[in-house]
Amino acid sequence: MADSSSQSIATMPPLDEPRRGNLSKSRIRAAWTFITPMLVLLALVAGWPLLRTIWFGFTDASFSDLSSMQWIGFANYLDYEDGEWYGLLADSQWWGAVWNTLYFTVITVSAELVLGTIIALTLNANFVGRGIVRAAILIPWAIPTIVSAKMWGWMLHDQFGIINHLLMTVGFIDTPLAWTADPDLSMWAVIMVDIWKTTPFMALLILAALQMLPSDCYEAAKVDGIHPVKVFFKVTLPLITPAVMVAVIFRALDALRVFDLIYVLTSNSTETMSMSVYARQQLVEFQDVGYGSAASTMLFLIIALITIAYLYLGRKHLGDD
Amino acid sequence: MQILTPQQLRIKRIKHITTRAAFYALVVAIVLFSVFPFYYAIVTSMQTSSELFEVSYWVEHLNWENYQAVMGQSSFVSSIGNSILISTLVVAISILFGLTAAYALGRVDFKGRGPILTIVLGVSMFPQVAVLSGLFEVIRALNIYNNPLGLVFSYTIFTLPFTVWVLTTFMRQLPKELEEAAIVDGATPWVTIFKVFMPLLWPAMATTGLLAFIAAWNEFLFALTFTLTDDQRTVPVAIALISGGSAYELPWGIIMAASVIVTVPLVVLVLIFQRRIVSGLTAGAVKG
User: Fold this and answer.
1) Are B240 and B126 within one domain?
2) Which of A34, A120, B148, B163 could lock onto B98 through a cystine, CB 3.0 to 4.6 A?
3) Is A302 within 8 Å of A275 (Cβ atoms)?
4) Does B149 touch chain A (CB under 8 A)?
5) pLDDT values of chain A reduced to their tens digit, one per residue, 321 residues
6) Nearest-by-Cβ selection for A34 from B100, B119, B183
7) Are residues B28 and B106 in the same domain?
């Protein structure tokens, strides 16, 4: 046994350069063979459609007949005719949608961050029934957005909804509120449902970050008798910030393209219309592919800009440390 | 050690009890906040249409009328079939393409790896509506409009980048010796992936597969735009389009029954799977 193994090592040719070169060359060839199908699929499903959307934005294409279209330059974006400005950039409804989306994003992501941290800290403690609670908070996450929009739509129903019933029993309100129809309330209804739906995601990511923390700093803090609140702000928070920032950017990108929830809960109301809802309404309902594509392109640019700014600031911030 | 007077001890004990009570109140609040809407959907789904006018907090009697009504609609049943077919195919395609691409991106050093990973990550951040009109054109050209295959195709835009990204991370953590042994044995990369790496990647594949399944099952915008007839719809679109006599008298009992039907399998899946995710996380935390 020992002989044969030593012999096999002896007879094995040394890994000289040409052989290794061949091996790594064939590996690289194999790598490209494996990557190409994925890249082709992504190009077909994402790259090319994006380019076409940008192109459509400069034409007067219509949804029923995409073949006959004409190049109209920037007219979908901005056009001056007979002393009046037309186009996306002059459309107050579009700017309303931009504002709604940003407002929705900032409020929901901040609220989810705070609530998610509270839930994560709770789950990080040791207590009876922790597993059940962790399972329970996954339920909102698992429910399809459409279903949660319908469920909350029913709970927020102006006449028979349980939320109005509860609030009236407690005495907070005298008359039922029209949550999804009242212009002053509908955005808050949307925000509330989104917070309910996506806080679990945030909580689980923060919990994962919390569980990675070294326990020795906490032992040291405990020995020194430092107040837990102070420990949280001075030790825990700085340590989990990088992981939390990743969660925040994922949630923010998701919130910026929100569609399903708003479409189902408040349909096409202008008070809650997001950029995605606006673009789809132009594209499909008004059949105006040119104009709708211009709006989609703007949405893409806004999200890309925010992402790049975030990555740039993140890198700069990390560089300072 | 400091000696406490009986009074100080009592104060300390009261303080301890109140913190405990406050903590459990918080726990109960979290559970109620998470579970109540789904629970209330179940309650509503068991009510007859006249009972809907009264708010009730409990299931008073088991009444399956709404479930029978929903399952009696052939279009709803076919939408469940469509959703199962589409989600399963999406998972299969994403895992197959994701696994092979992850091998290349995670195990082989070659020029262009960094840019490809950036592209993949970039695609996962695409707003879906930004590709809507272009994708509509591609789907029409491929002749898969109003067809489940059109949705399978379009869903890879969000499942594939995510699968590639996660599997690459896992692929990278596998020991190098395994692959070297396979190469010495003369295994082709194809064999290496499916005979050596795949058995080790089951947990990662199960996680990504389940997440891709849920994402495909829940998708709404593409399903709404790329299907036309009721028998080609997926479940979320079917539920969103359930309507009554007018916008003001939606059949809430039936909508809730349909919601419960499509959500229960998902909740069960997640609850079974949750233990695995959590144990993975805690194992990492213990080692860390």
Assistant:
1) yes
2) B163
3) yes
4) no
5) 344 444 444 444 444 444 556 777 888 888 898 999 999 999 999 999 999 999 999 998 887 777 778 888 888 898 888 878 888 888 889 999 999 999 999 999 999 999 999 999 998 888 888 888 888 888 898 899 999 999 999 999 888 889 999 899 888 888 888 888 888 889 999 999 999 999 988 888 888 888 878 877 777 877 888 888 888 888 888 888 887 887 888 889 889 999 999 999 987 788 889 999 999 999 988 888 899 999 999 999 999 898 888 878 877 665 544
6) B100
7) no
Are B18 and B105 in a shared domain? no
Domains of chain A from N-terminus onward: 93-287 (1.10.3720.10)
The torsion angles phi and psi of A84, rounded to 5 degrees, stand at -130, 145
The CATH number that applies at residue B150 is 1.10.3720.10
Position of tokens 């094995």? A12
Range of the domain at B25: 6-53
Q: Is residue B61 part of a domain?
A: no
Which residues of B fall within a CB distance of 8 Å from A49? 131-135, 137-138
Question: Do B85 and B32 lie in a common domain?
Answer: no
To the nearest whole angstrom, how far is the Cα of B121 from the nearest Cα of chain A? 11
First-last CA distance in chain B: 34
Residue A271, φ and ψ in degrees, nearest 5: -65, -30
